[in-house]
Amino acid sequence: MSSRLIGVGVGPGDPELVTVKGVGALRAADVVVVPVMDSGERGRAEATVLHYVPEEKVVRVVFALNERTDRARREAAWDAAGERVAGLLAEHGAVAFATIGDPNVYSTFTYLAQTIGVLVPGTVVETVPGITAMQDLAARSGAVLTEGTEPLTLVPVTAGSAVLKDALAGPGTVVAYKFGRQAAEVAEALRETGRIDDALWGSALGLAEESIRPAADLDDTPLPYLSTLIAPARRDGGRGGKL
After folding, report:
1. DSSP of the chain, one letter per residue?
2. Global pTM value
3. In Å, how far from its chain's centre is CA 90?
4. How many Cα atoms occupy the beta-carbon half-sphere of 177 within 13 Å?
5. pLDDT tens across 72-102, in order?
């Protein structure tokens, strides 16, 4: 029988936000792979997983999670990680890969699954959805993501501030991921488009160092890389105005 690779979304950091199905998948797998940077520090995915499975079941695999400029180094790291997971699949029937948020939303799992498809043809790839940072931030802050016919635009600020400005100039709510290192540029984009007054940002959601603040407080101070921004849609039509 073919081995199974299961991408499991473990949410934005709060271990209570892992779904029942996610916990079941982690516990049912023979091993649980967690991505770590080459510095070796424990990431959110690993910290969350350890609430539900014993440490001896967890396999730490180095990924170039923060490498964006040196493509050769990034590709070499991806190949090494793929080979490591391919080896695990040769030994085990079910390997889970824990990823923060959701495995189908800007996730490391996407690239791993593509690599495994080449290295281990026939591997069955499955995903278990997870709660995203934008959902958690909306719940903790009271921000409403969508109403009626409003669109919702999700932008990774790593794509550049111009992409964010284009989104903010349009209708509906805009969510920005990974903007911590470009906080000043994000604040500028919000001011230029008249969206800063209702916008807010959050980081380390559900953890001891959680921070949820108005976007108007943004300045040149770098924020955690995995900060999330919500700029709610302009709503001036009263209740049900966007239906």
Report:
1. ---EEEEEE-BSS-GGGS-HHHHHHHHHSSEEEEEE-TT----HHHHHHTTTS-GGGEEEEE--TT--S-HHHHHHHHHHHHHHHHHHHHH-SEEEEEESB-TTSS-HHHHHHHHHHHHSTT-EEEEE----HHHHHHHHH------TT--EEEEEGGG-HHHHHHHHTSSSEEEEES-GGGHHHHHHHHHHTT-TTT-EEEESTTSTT-EEEEGGG--SS---TT-EEEEPPP--S-TTTT-
2. 0.91
3. 28
4. 16
5. 777 888 889 999 999 999 999 999 999 999 9
Nearest residue to 211 via CA among 188, 228, 194, 232: 228
Average pLDDT over residues 18-29: 98
**pLDDT band at 160, cuts 50/70/90?**
confident
Average pLDDT, the chain: 91
Residue-wise pLDDT for 41-74, tens only, equals 788 999 999 999 999 999 999 886 555 567 777 7
Cα 230 to chain centroid, rounded? 15
d(CA 46, CA 48): 5
